[in-house]
Every structure is written in structure tokens, then in C-alpha cells.
TrEMBL record:
Residues 11-30 have a biased composition (Low complexity). PROSITE patterns: HTH_LUXR_1, HTH_LUXR_2, RESPONSE_REGULATORY. Residues 1-10 have a biased composition (Basic and acidic residues). The lineage of its organism: Bacteria, Bacillati, Actinomycetota, Actinomycetes, Streptosporangiales. Residues 38-154 form the Response regulatory domain. This is Response regulator transcription factor. GO terms for molecular function: DNA binding. It comes from the Bacteria. Residues 1-30 are annotated as: Disordered. The keyword Cytoplasm does not apply. SMART domains: HTH_LUXR, REC. One of its GO terms (biological process) is regulation of DNA-templated transcription. The modification 4-aspartylphosphate is found at D89.
């Protein structure tokens, strides 16, 4: 691999576009070789971004086309660069990875998004899946495994770290059991019109802040509505509320 010009690297600002491949990269590829997988890296830790870039740029079939430091930059860069794969953290300033994921799926519908994070919380996993993520990998993964993860997601596979997959299975098993028990009980409780509005936006993968902006209400009011929805449905998480509402035909996800 041809080394990147150090002077050009020092002059780059964050966020930056990686730009064209280094001189000689195209010539080194045999005629008829498929275009490289275009990757956008988004993480608020610059050293982590650089480490990922170094590993990925060492692969002939992968090209890092840009990197950003927060969710706001992720959405802007995805719309401009139209990456094939986005590697993105969840906990970031200005806009979370979950919120950015939803927006990126609108700005660049063909992009496959992999959440690469330290968060092993079930709620983050469920919210990422609802927002359209194709993968959820913990940062405990060996950095040398990332190129293969990029190829797998680009090829249409869904990836979840084993420890998170077990949590997902456990959660859905518990949800299925509660739903089965509930079918023999009282009819589904009635939600208010405002609660239904909130539930529909939750189903679209929006976070509390985005729902507040959409409905012109405060974030605390959104939290109260979500809490009331969970209490009425006797559920424990936003993910359960969406699955239950679809199952009971309280709403449809189109």
C-alpha cells in the first residue's frame, strides 16, 4: 500500500474527507476488479478513528472516504459522500449515533451502518436495530476483525456481537411470553392521541430530543409520555412497546 502524504494528513481538518485513493492504488488493481467498499468512520475519539483507518486502508478492497467526530457530522458527510458502509459510535456529542443512524438512512439509503461501541446496554442495541443499523459490535472486538465485518455487512449480512445477541434472544423470548399471557387477559389499553404520536415516532427510531422537536414539546414531556406508554402496556422498554403495538395492531410500521 502506498503511504499517505504526511503533509497532506497534517493539513487535514476534522471532519475530513479521505479524498481520492493514494497515487498508484488504482493502477495496482487488476483490470475488472470490483470497486472498493467505501467506508465512513465516525467516532469522537480521534486516535480510535486513526487506528481504524490504518487497518482498513491496508485492505485492497476497502477505501476510507472520510471520518467525522460526532453524529451531526456523520449525517452531513454521509449525504455528501454516499458511503457503502458507516462505522459509527453511539455515545457522541451534538447528536448520538442512534439519532444519526435514522437520519443517515434517509440521506444515504443504501449505506450499511455498523454501530461500533463500548455500550453493552440492551436498550442501545434495540434502538440501533430500530434505527436501521445492520450491525452492532462492541469495541472489544479485535481491530483486525473489522475489515471482515465491513465486507460481511456490505455483502448483506447482519452482525451482532455474541454477548449482545444472547441479550437480544433473551429479551424477545421474554416479550413473546408476556404477549402470550396477555392475549388471555384484558384488551389492549387505549393510548391517548398524543401517546400514539409519540409511539409512532419511537417506532421510526427517533430519540427523545428528536421527538420533542417534531412535536414542539419539551424533552421531559416526551419522557413522561414514554413512561405512561410503558406503564399502560405493562412493558419495560421502548423496543417492547413498539413490538407489542405492532402485534396488537395499535400501529403499523411502513
Amino acid at each position: 500500500m502506498v503511504s499517505e502524504n504526511p503533509e497532506a494528513r497534517d493539513a487535514a481538518a476534522v471532519p475530513r474527507q479521505a479524498g481520492a485513493a493514494p497515487a498508484g492504488r488504482e493502477a495496482a488493481q487488476p483490470a475488472g476488479t470490483a470497486d472498493p467498499i467505501r467506508v465512513l468512520i465516525v467516532d469522537d475519539h480521534a486516535l480510535f478513528r486513526r487506528g481504524l483507518e490504518m487497518v482498513l486502508q491496508g485492505e485492497d478492497d476497502i477505501e476510507v472516504i472520510g471520518e467525522g467526530g460526532d453524529g451531526h457530522e456523520a449525517v452531513e458527510m454521509a449525504g455528501d459522500l454516499l458511503p457503502d458502509v458507516v462505522l459509527m459510535d453511539i455515545r457522541m456529542p451534538r447528536r448520538s449515533g442512534i439519532e444519526a443512524c435514522t437520519a443517515i438512512k434517509d440521506a444515504a439509503p443504501s449505506a450499511k451502518i455498523v454501530m461500533l461501541t463500548i455500550s453493552d446496554e440492551e436498550e442501545d442495541l434495540f434502538e440501533a436495530i430500530k434505527a436501521g443499523a445492520s450491525g452492532y459490535l462492541l469495541k472489544e472486538i479485535s481491530i483486525d476483525e473489522v475489515p471482515q465485518a465491513v465486507r460481511a455487512v456490505h455483502g448483506g449480512q447482519s452482525l451482532i456481537s455474541p454477548s449482545m445477541a444472547s441479550k437480544l434472544i433473551t429479551e424477545f423470548a421474554a416479550l413473546a411470553k408476556r404477549s402470550e399471557e396477555r392475549t388471555q387477559q384484558v384488551p389492549a389499553p387505549r393510548l391517548t392521541d398524543r401517546e400514539m404520536e409519540v409511539l409512532r415516532l419511537v417506532a421510526r427510531g427517533l430519540g427523545n430530543r428528536e421527538i420533542a422537536r417534531e412535536l414542539f414539546i419539551s424533552e421531559n414531556t416526551v419522557k413522561n409520555h414514554v413512561r405512561n406508554i410503558l406503564e399502560k402496556l405493562q412493558l419495560h422498554s421502548r423496543m417492547e412497546a413498539v413490538v407489542y403495538a405492532v402485534r396488537e395492531k395499535l400501529l403499523e410500521i411502513t
